[in-house]
Fold this sequence. Notes:
The chain is of the alpha+beta class. The protein is 50% helix and 8% strand.
Amino acid sequence: MKDKKNSFYGKKHSKESRRRMSESHKGKRHSEETKKKISKNHVGMKGKEHSEEAKEKMSRSHEGKILSEEHKKNISESCRGTNHPMYGKKHSERTKLKIAITIAKVFEENHNNFRHTSKNYFTGIELIVKNFLEKHSIKYKHNMRVGYYFPDFIILDNVILECDGEYWHSENNKDYSEEREKKRDKYLEKKGYLVFHLTEENIRKRLKSLMATILRKVRKRNGTI
C-alpha cells in the first residue's frame, strides 16, 4: 500500500525497532524461487536516473560513516565465488564499451578533483596562499569535500579560494573546460559559498592586495563594514 493508505504512513521505526528487525534477518537466505519473484517484481531504478538533489542526499548520508571490520568482511564474502552477480558470465563487447565511455567521462569531468584531493598536498601556488593565510592567522580548510568537489581553500566558513595554475587553466591543457568551471562554481554558490579564483600571476605578484580586496568584498556582503 502506498501513501496514506499505508497504516505506517508518516511514521518511522525507532532505532531499537530497526535493530530488532536487523537481528531477526541475520543468517536468513532467500530461496532461489523467492529471489526470482523479487527480481521480477522489483523495477527499481532501471532506465531511470537519480536527481542531483537525491545524489547529494545520498552523498551526505554516507559522509563520516566507517564500516566495521565485520561489515567489510560480510560484504566481501557476499560477493565471492558463486555469490558474485557476474559469476560465470562475461560482459558483452557493447557493455565493455559503455563502461569504458562512462569511466572516461567521469574522469574528464572530475580531472582536477582526481589530481590532488589530499588535504596534505599543496601545489606551488597553493603553498604560497597557505603561508599567507597562516601568517595572517586566517583559519582555512584545504581540499575539504563539498558535495562532488574539493575546493582548494575554504576560509571564513563560506568563502572558497581557487588557485588557478597557469597551465591547468589555459588552452594548452586539453582537459580544461571553462564551461565545466562555471558549472562547478554555480554548484558551490548554490551551496552558499562565495567563490574567488586566484590566478597564478596574481598569487605570485600581488597576493596581499588581492586578499585585501576579497576580504573587503566579503565584509561588505556580510554587512560588517
